[in-house]
Design a protein that fits this description.
It is a single chain. This protein is α/β, with parallel strands linked by helices and 367 residues long. It folds into 3 domains: 16-73, Orthogonal Bundle (434 Repressor (Amino-terminal Domain)), CATH 1.10.260; 82-192 and 325-354, Response regulator (Rossmann fold, 3-Layer(aba) Sandwich); 193-322, Response regulator (Rossmann fold), CATH 3.40.50. It contains 14 helices and 12 strands.
Length: 367
């Protein structure tokens, strides 16, 4: 009998130690949930819910997570018009870009939208042409006419100090996504392209490659400059140089990748490996290699940069530097929303580290 009681006690103890499953909140879809419903289900005040929606740091993490779960479970969406009337804000964020890499824009926009949905903001997208003579005027009109609460600048526009200064002048808050620290004070989301490119150099040399081709990105972009510098320095650590004869100038597009690959793979002594500065150009290399009967990776190793969805759709799957673009977009939007709620908050930058993802397009050179 004592043993039975001991076993029962152990069972009770074991049951007590099991963590409670997260509570799921069910909502009647016949009625649209309100902020009052969120507050009631989360057992907090309406003001606390509002603080969470507006990214205020005055709410502890446990309460924030509970409120966020209620919002997600019942599908609550703040009404931008009602909030705007109460706070004299538009609850509109803008994203401005001039980037030929459409996959990059799609991915970063997905991250921004994720943050916007949680905070009840709407997103206005504005592509532009930086070389247009009316570019600066158009940017000013976009920010002022849309009555934006803030703007997210993507590279290469994020590198434009004149644009940043203009936004400061008109009082429009902004966040910049860039690969290096920039001059005009603003919250920054920084991705270290230099380190990613240096890691590619290490990878190719360690595989045994010595004739290494390089396809550069658009030279005016800081990302292209940082990737070139990182790759060259990475090769130098192994006693190699970035050979001008094995280098080609691309433009971050599939077509430019094809043109550069045609040049490199038509040489009498072609490279055994090619590093293309983004996945779009790497796809161009694949196309030309296929046309020339060059097998990847048996005859040619190819490495890209960004780890876009394209990398896994290519055959063989592309080795590439992972750029957490969606996460960068989400963090940029979260920072901007927090800055809108707290204009005097201390400026900080978030740094994302690169990571080389080795897949099927990497192999040692033929003996």
């Amino acid at each position: 009998m004592p043993r039975a009681r001991t076993a029962d006690a152990a069972a009770v103890t074991e049951q007590a130690e099991k963590p409670e499953a997260p509570k799921t909140y069910i909502w009647d879809l016949k009625r649209r949930p309100t902020i009052n419903d969120v507050a009631r289900l989360a057992e907090v005040s309406k003001k606390t819910v509002s603080r969470v929606i507006n990214q205020s740091p005055l709410v502890n993490e446990e309460t924030r997570q509970k409120i966020t779960k209620v919002i997600d479970d019942i599908g609550y969406e703040p009404d931008p018009q009602a909030r705007g009337l109460a706070s004299q804000r538009s609850f509109l964020l803008g994203i401005i870009y001039d980037n030929p890499n459409s996959q990059y824009v799609v991915n970063v926009q997905a991250g921004i939208l994720e943050a916007c949905r949680k905070s009840g903001f709407e997103l206005v997208v504005h592509p532009c042409i930086r070389t247009s003579p009316t570019y600066m005027k158009e940017m000013r009109q976009f920010a002022e006419r849309q009555k934006l609460d803030g703007v997210i600048l993507l590279p290469p526009l994020s590198e434009d100090e004149a644009l940043a200064a203009m936004l400061v002048e008109i009082g429009c808050r902004f966040i910049r996504v860039a690969c290096v620290p920039l001059d005009v004070a603003a919250h920054l989301v920084v991705y270290e392209d230099y380190k990613g490119a240096a890691e590619v150099a290490d990878h190719l040399v360690e595989l045994g490659h010595r004739r290494i081709g390089y396809i550069a990105g658009t030279p005016q972009y800081k990302s292209a400059q940082e990737r070139r510098r990182g790759f060259a320095d990475g090769l130098a650590r192994h006693g190699l140089t970035l050979d001008p004869e094995l280098s080609a100038q691309g433009a971050y597009t599939f077509e430019s990748g094809q043109e550069c690959a045609e040049k490199l793979l038509s040489m009498a002594n072609p490279p055994t490996a090619i590093f293309a500065c983004n996945d779009e150009m790497a796809a161009g290399v694949y196309r030309i290699a296929y046309q020339k009967g060059i097998a990847i990776p048996q005859d040619l190793t190819v490495v890209g940069f960004d780890d876009s969805q394209l990398a896994l759709r290519m055959c063989p799957a592309l080795s590439t530097v992972r750029s957490p673009v969606r996460d960068m977009g989400r963090v940029a939007a979260e920072k901007l929303i927090q800055r809108i709620a707290q204009p005097d908050a201390k400026l900080r930058e978030t740094i994302f580290q690169p990571h080389l993802v080795v897949r099927e397009s990497s192999a040692p050179p033929k003996a």
